[in-house]
DNA sequence: ATAGGGCTTCCAGTCGCTGGAAGGTCAAGG
DNA sequence: CCTTGACCTTCCAGCGACTGGAAGCCCTAT
């Protein structure tokens, strides 16, 4: 299976597949003509990475998760720890964004939004 | 006021102040010795930018907001539009993160987290 | 023979800083 | 007067995770 097909199977762009090979996340074989030859295992790994990325794990974390996944002797506690840590980071981000939203929403609500120059948003950003 | 003092006043690192000068966000004068000399207006502008950045606006958006702020003839509608658009982006990010949190939280909850290798989190990432 | 599509590599750019090296400047202390 | 140490300067490189583009090879169909 060459790269275009693998891209369709995994939903990842070809550029990303090449990048993942470059950083050693996948190691597809090569055909005699130099084309990458993705195996079903490669596709499986890539799908796993894609899912993990979609949940916000960094590429390095994905590498670790992938290793854990391939190691049938791993302790589930290790994985749980990583996931819980990541969950906490996500919660934190949400809280940060929610704070931004609240502030910004207040500013927007206070602004008439007409053609007059008086603007509570800018005043707010300037610090009253 | 040289850069170290300006950094303390604005809460921004000196590196960031130099960077902001490089991209033309601020244009501090120079002393005869070549040191940057920040005026009160510079500090005001930097504070404005710092606040806007803290609300998640991109640096380019900050540049625009800064211009609008300095233009006493601007229409508040322009600012409101930018802010509302940004607000929508923030809401979207929050929704994305909330979805991640929910999925991840389910996976974590299903995982015993002991020293056995069976791990619903990895199974979930692998796609059942 | 040629046209097209897909594949290869390599290099540069994104965004917003951040770190570090090499060196100039300044005020205080011995 | 000299040194020390804290400042300041510039320039260059790197982060994460791609993304775009150029130059060129490969393969199939007409």
From TrEMBL, chains A, B:
GO biological process: positive regulation of DNA-templated transcription
Annotated HTH merR-type domain residues: 1-68
Alphabetized Gene3D superfamilies for the sequence: 1.10.1660.10
Swiss-Prot/TrEMBL keywords: Cytoplasm, DNA-binding, Transcription, Transcription regulation
Main location: cytoplasm
The keyword rRNA processing is assigned to this record: no
Any one GO MF annotation of this record: DNA binding
Annotated Gene Ontology cellular component terms: cytoplasm
InterPro entries for this protein: CueR, DNA-bd_dom_put_sf, MerR-type_HTH_dom, MerR_fam, Tscrpt_reg_MerR_DNA-bd
This protein's name: Cu(I)-responsive transcriptional regulator
Species assigned in the record: Pontivivens marinum
